[in-house]
Amino acid sequence: MNRLAGKVALITGAGRGIGAAIALAFAREGAAVVLAELNLETARQTAQRIESETGARVLAVETDVTQAASVRQAVSEAEQAFGAPDVLVNNAGINVFCDPLTMTDDDWRRCFAVDLDGVWNGCRAVLPGMVERGSGSIVNIASTHAFKIIPGCFPYPVAKHGVIGLTRALGIEYAPRNVRVNAIAPGYIETQLTHDWWNEQADPAAAQQATLALQPMKRIGRPEEVAMTAVFLASDEAPFINATCITVDGGRSALYHD
């Protein structure tokens, strides 16, 4: 299929997990893809796999989303290789779960540097070009933590609430220039981070089963299910969807109680 044919997409945190799935889905839909990833070796391995599977044009770029200059450099390298990005997916993120009163200042700063500042750094790097061209799509990967609170996860949900606010504000600000800014809120998705969390528990198998039991569909999501939502938002099939968030959680957040 060619739903993104001719488009250039830059995806942060694209070395593995949801980001890698988005990069692969975009490549399959005809986009030239830039994997902006802190771990360059991981990005290169993923880029090689995507190129081999799809034949798409793929570039891996070492990027630290907490540093505005690093993100600007990634955009510059994308422009030199393929042209100006038509699509940005702000996917890079980290889990920082603390007790509020024992959390360190470094924990707070680390969470916001990646999960909120990193999103803004990406937006700020691509928006001038998108505004000038009068077109563009930004997709921010938020979380169901952006509107549901799980005790023990502070300050992660605070940052993700900020991502939704940023998405709405920028979407409205640049709507007259035909630049759309949307978000996706994944619930439980089967990534390495999820498996790592299960494996940290006293009984990993029981922890996994407890998670699955909470889900209305009795399973958790797959990275490619988030990826295809990103394809839709990035494509010309969603021209009037702006400043909003699509939840991908199998209905979990709709439950009043278990």
From TrEMBL:
CDD domains: SDR_c. Transmembrane segments: none annotated. GO terms for molecular function: oxidoreductase activity, acting on the CH-OH group of donors, NAD or NADP as acceptor. It comes from the Bacteria. Pfam families: adh_short_C2 (PF13561). Belongs to the short-chain dehydrogenases/reductases (SDR) family. NCBIfam families: PRK07063.1, PRK07231.1. This is NAD(P)-dependent dehydrogenase, short-chain alcohol dehydrogenase family. The lineage of its organism: Bacteria, Pseudomonadati, Pseudomonadota, Betaproteobacteria, Burkholderiales.
